[in-house]
Amino acid sequence: MAKTKKTKFPYVYRAVYPKEYIDGYIAKIVRKSGRLFTVFQLAEYDGNHDKCVKAAAKVAADFDKKHPKLPRWQIAQLRRDKKDKDLPAGIRRVTKEVNGKKYKFIEASWSPQPNVQKKRHFAIDKYGLKKALALALAERKTGLAEMANR
């Protein structure tokens, strides 16, 4: 029976998969900046569990140093592919239709805590494009500051 079990080292797992001829340890980390999945076979370390697990732990620790975890507020500032490429991350143009009439907005969005999405709309007709954009940027900035303080 195949099984994977945690070890006392972070990101290192004991792996026994007889059908795939794997008997050893796996170093596994997934980050936005890269991923690590390396198998360390016990046979390569003459069946010595300590040597094998320490080699896996060293590789995992090195990868963890080179690719640190980013806090949520820093991930929120990363540039992404999106429809409005001329606008920064978290700001977008929105058009809503009410009773056949279209209203244009600039929307700022952020996530103060996991699974919670906050949004603010600024009407282009009311504020003008430049002021609506400036207000949206200011609102998002305060939202990101709120995320950083958590």
Tags for this entry?
single chain; 150 residues; alpha+beta; 4-stranded antiparallel beta sheet; 3-stranded antiparallel beta sheet; 4 helices; 7 strands; 31% helix
Structure explained in plain terms:
By secondary structure, the chain is of the alpha+beta class. The strands form 2 sheets. A 4-stranded antiparallel β-sheet has the order 1-2-3-4, covered by helices on one side. Strands 5-6-7 form a 3-stranded antiparallel β-sheet. The protein has 2 domains: 64 residues; 78 residues, no CATH class.
- Secondary-structure element sequence? EEEEHHEEEHH
Per DSSP, the total helix count is: 4
What is the helix content?
25-40%
Low-confidence stretches: none
Backbone CA Rg = 24 Å
> Widest sheet: strand order?
1-2-3-4
Q: For the record, give the distance between the C-alpha atoms at the N and C termini, rounded to a whole number.
A: 43 Å
Total discrete domains:
2
Assembly classification: single chain
**Structural class from helices and strands?**
alpha+beta
